[in-house]
């Protein structure tokens, strides 16, 4: 998604231009989740502006276009312990804000929900894991709560003010409906260093979320790491599909993918 800033920090507008393949109804659905989070009391939720007929998406040259209020700030720090705790507590409040939101099924399946029931067979041998598939199938049956989620909760979608206080949650394009444990585990992975190298820090992120009263009531370590591995596998599958299509990646991308694959193997319970 390409962002271009409008008239500046005071009353400014950000123009977001999406890819041609993104359907308008999919974008509208994701925007509706942001609007429901704000309506549910999440003051940090940045929501799109509406057109005169109530829509949040228009199309220009085949691409979805939306307008968003400009929010001054800087990206959150990925490995700052104080901001990581803030991010955990903010995520808890985000989940509470969406817990009772009534939204229809997502028009297009979110990638993170693919294989969440252990029902996808991966072509690449390094992504095959029958034990993980079996665990996911059991998790899907045990999960007693699902609701709308942000879907891409990481430091690049959070803004902090000059005092380090998190003030904005951006980019709802990957919003989905799933058990909140899925997002909590993924966020713990994102905010505690590269590829969950420090599981104690991951546990600390989860504990801060639980202390803040999110919609997840408990998350044991096995569930945490298996849901992390599900996320890593989905990201790896996306990378491999793009590579097969001929999409170009640089050396940094290749190194990151190698680290992701190593973590997927190392985190196996």
Describe the structure.
The chain is of the alpha+beta class and 269 residues long. It has 2 domains: 2-69, 2-Layer Sandwich (Phosphorylase Kinase, domain 1); 74-266, Aminoglycoside 3'-phosphotransferase, Chain: A, domain 2, CATH 3.90.1200. 42% of the residues lie in helices and 13% in strands. The protein is built from 7 helices and 9 strands, in the order ββαβββααββββαααα. It has helices spanning 24-39, 81-98, 130-142, 180-190, 199-212, 221-244, 251-266; strands at 2-5, 13-17, 58-60, 63-69, 74-75, 147-149, 158-160, 166-169, 176-178. A 4-stranded antiparallel sheet has the order 1-2-4-3, with no helix packed on it. Strands 5-7-8 form a 3-stranded antiparallel sheet, covered by helices on one side. Strand 7 (158-160) and strand 8 form a beta hairpin. Helix 2 (81-98) crosses helix 5 (199-212), helix 3 (130-142) crosses helix 6 (221-244) and helix 6 runs antiparallel to helix 7. The longest helix is centred in the last third of the chain and has 24 residues, at 221-244. The radius of gyration is 18 Å and the shape is globular. The protein starts with a strand and ends with a helix. The relative contact order is 0.15. Residues 1-8 have low confidence and may be disordered.
């Amino acid at each position: 998604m390409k962002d271009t800033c409008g008239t500046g920090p005071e009353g400014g507008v950000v123009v977001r231009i999406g890819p041609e393949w993104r359907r308008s109804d999919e974008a509208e659905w994701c925007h509706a989740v942001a609007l429901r989070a704000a309506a549910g009391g999440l003051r940090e939720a940045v929501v799109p502006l509406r057109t005169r007929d109530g829509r949040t998406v228009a199309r220009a040259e085949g691409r979805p276009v939306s307008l968003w209020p400009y929010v001054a700030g800087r990206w959150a720090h990925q490995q700052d312990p104080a901001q990581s705790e803030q991010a955990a507590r903010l995520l808890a409040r985000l989940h509470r804000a969406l817990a009772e939101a009534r939204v229809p099924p997502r028009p297009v399946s979110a990638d993170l929900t693919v294989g969440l029931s252990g029902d996808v067979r991966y072509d690449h041998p390094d992504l095959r894991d029958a034990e993980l598939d079996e665990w996911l199938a059991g998790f899907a049956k045990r999960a007693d709560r699902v609701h709308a989620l942000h879907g891409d909760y990481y430091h690049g979608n959070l803004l902090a003010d000059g005092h380090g206080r998190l003030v904005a949650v951006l980019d709802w394009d990957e919003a989905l409906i799933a058990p909140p444990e899925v997002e909590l585990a993924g966020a713990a992975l994102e905010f505690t260093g590269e590829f969950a190298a420090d599981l104690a820090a991951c546990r600390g992120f989860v504990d801060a979320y639980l202390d803040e009263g999110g919609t997840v009531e408990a998350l044991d370590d096995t569930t945490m790491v298996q849901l992390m591995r599900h996320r890593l596998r989905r990201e790896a599958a996306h990378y491999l599909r793009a590579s097969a299509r001929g999409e170009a990646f640089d050396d940094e991308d290749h190194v990151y993918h190698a680290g992701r694959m190593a973590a997927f193997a190392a985190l196996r319970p």
